[in-house]
Amino acid sequence: MLSAPAIWRIAERLRGVVPPGEYGSVILAFTVLRRLELARGRPVAALAAVARATSPQARLETLIARLPAPVRGMMTRMEMDLIAPRLARAGVLGDVAAHFAALDLSPALYGTQDMARLFEELVHHFDSSEDTGAHYTPPEVGDLMTDLVFAPDDAGTGHALYDPAVGTGALLGRAADRLAARGVMVDLFGQEISPRACAICQADMLLRGRNPAHIQPGNTLAADHHSRRRFARMLANPPFGQEWRGIRPAIQAEHAAGAAGRFAAGLPRVADGSMLFLQHLLAKMRKPVHGGARVGMVTHGAALGGGGAESGESAIRRHLVDHDLIDTLIALPPDMFVNTGIATYVWILDNCKPAGRQGMVRLVDATGLWQRCPRSSGEKRREMTQAHIAAVVQASTAGHDMDLIVQPGAEGAAADWHAVTHDGSVRMDGTCALPLSRSVKGEDFLYHSLSVERAANCDGAPTRLTFTVDGADDPQAWFARMIQPFDPTARLDRTRSTTGCAISFARYFGAPSAPRALHAIEADLHHSMARLAALVEKGGR
Q1: How many angstroms separate the CA atoms of 268 and 244, rounded?
Q2: Which PANTHER family does this chain map to (predicted)?
Q3: Choosing a second label site near 181 at 20 to 30 A (CA), which of 91, 94, 128, 482?
Q4: Residue from 327, 371, 368 nearest 346 by CA
Q5: DSSP sequence for 329-362
């Protein structure tokens, strides 16, 4: 069987003809054309005819014009109408067509799944060569989200699976393959803002024997092209830090529409639309009366605690807590993504949680479950194995809290580890027990931001102080206990006080440092006093 590098060798003929960033469009488009002509009931030799033609460009244009409309749309979004003339002018279009005409991509040699994997390998090479990672989700992160989102589903189950920022389709395709091995079938849907990435995803769907029309082009936040559909299962890794300034009027209009729009809970900072995608997914969830929905989404850390109590981000988080929509939050290891080394998190949302999990959120600290990548790619230096994934799934779905027993190894990675039920015991065998999962009441993420006004200072202006108080505290009772006895003139300004929502892993997983020994503190104190005395003596001379 062919390998992706064998197909990719044509890049040598493209050198100096098209920019390296366009190699992928040429190779992927011709791969699709070759597969289509061999997959017909009566295979044709259209690309061979292009290679032999006196005018390869005219022959190729005729070939594309006879394709079904969805495939013609793919070729347009891959910019073949611009690239083909360039290849023709350089005199290499016939050679490119001949290269692909000689490849056996027939269904007899490559079944649907084999062809999909070959195409995915080509896409990954294309993404990696551009070194952007813009549409790339690490395979292990996709596997983890898939296992968690489909955790309730047994063999024989079928669902519609949707990705609102589908990119080249790697996340959907890998999920479909993983689920098929479990006997769970999915119908794939998505939308993508990049025309080229959308075309590649549509081509992947076509080669998988699926409907490419289920993948729609366009900005999901500006216009939902699957507006009539709701989904039982969704996966998403939307771009981090994507600003929405250019579509602000459309976003604000939907926010003003309240429940009739997608963004009723709140508007985040214009510099980052991550939490707009989160709200979009909420709006796409199948209603509980019809069986409910589960969502897996990757975000950066700001989605958990960014913004003050009055911010749109806080309002969105509070909406999630108030409606008991967060099932699990997972802190991933750092350096997992090609295009960023920042802390990342997986949200698992569920609008139909079982009785035992209602009102609760499972937090999982998976930052210690990783190994070094054999080969770094961009910012990606760490990876999770299938054993790591299984441990996180167990910690996420178990009915009890769990710890991680770790034997430290080189470079920060664990030399050995295993997950155990949390029982509060202290280990004496040289290993250390780290908290892996904790169940927390959703309401514990709420806090009060209280404004206290004190008496006027010398210039006559009152002094205002803001205090962050646990959400379980009654504001007036807190004020009467913590402020009033020490400043009878102070006043709690309820008009400026509000309730916020933030999720802090450090609150539940941060290990307090051991107190220093008393003799060490005394030694430092004596040393500092001696230095101070010496400075005083020196200054007095």
Answers
A1: 10
A2: SLR6095 PROTEIN, TYPE I RESTRICTION ENZYME MJAVIII METHYLASE SUBUNIT
A3: 128
A4: 327
A5: EEEPPSS-BTTB-S-EEEEEEESS--GGGTTEEE
User: Which class for 102: exposed (0-12), middle (13-18), buried (19 or more C-beta within 10 A)?
Assistant: exposed
Q: Which two tokens stand for residue 370?
A: 């990783």
Q: 418: helix, coil or strand?
A: strand
Q: What is the DSSP letter of 3?
A: -
- Could you tell me how many helices (H) and strands (E) the chain has, helices first? 20, 16
As a whole number of angstroms, the distance between CA 13 and CA 167 comes to 28
pLDDT at 132: 40
Tokens of 292: 């409910």
- CA–CA gap between residue 339 and residue 134 (Å, rounded): 7
Measured between its terminal Cα atoms, the distance across the chain in Å is 90
pLDDT value of residue 406: 85
What's the longest Cα–Cα distance across the chain?
105
Give the other-Cβ count within 10 Å of 508's Cβ. 16
The DSSP bridge partners found for residue 297 are 236, 347
pTM (2 d.p.): 0.86
- Residue 37, sorted as left (phi over 0), alpha (psi -120 to 50) or beta, turns out to be alpha
The rounded distance, in Å, linking the Cα atoms of 333 and 521 is: 35
129 token code pair: 């060569």
Q: Give Cα separations from 209 to 71, 74, 112, 285, 369 (angstroms).
A: 13, 16, 7, 26, 36
- CA-to-CA dists, residue 230 to 202, 203, 262, 285, angstroms: 21, 24, 13, 6
Given a cut of 50, the residues of the chain with pLDDT beneath it are: 129-135, 428
Who's near 444: CB < 8 A, 6+ residues apart? Answer: 471, 472
The pLDDT of residue 425 is 62
Q: Is 228 exposed, middle or buried (0-12, 13-18, 19+ CB in 10 A)?
A: exposed
Q: In b/e form, how buried is each residue of 157-170, taking b as 16+ CB within 10 angstroms?
A: bebbbbbbbbbbbb
pLDDT of residue 126: 64
Q: Which of 412, 437, 258 is nearest to 348 (CA)?
A: 437
Nearest residue to 234 (alpha-carbon basis) of 196, 274, 202, 187: 187
Q: Which two tokens stand for residue 302?
A: 């700001």
Distances (CA, A) of 78 to 8, 178, 285, 307: 17, 28, 32, 39
Q: Write the DSSP assignment of 172-183 as a string of letters.
A: HHHHHHHHHHHT
Residue at token pair 């850390």: 301
Side-chain-side CA neighbours of residue 458 (13 Å): 0
Looking at the DSSP bridge assignments, the partners of residue 349 are 295, 326
Provide the β-strand partners of residue 216. Answer: 191
Rg from Cα positions in the chain: 29
CA distance 273 to 264: 14
On whether the CB atoms of residues 180 and 154 are closer than 8 A, the answer is no
What span, in angstroms and rounded, lies between the C-alpha atoms of 303 and 502? 9
How far lies 456's CA from each of 167, 269, 461, 464, 509, in Å? 58, 35, 5, 10, 42
pLDDT of residue 320: 98
Is 36:71 a contact under the CB 8 Å cutoff?
yes
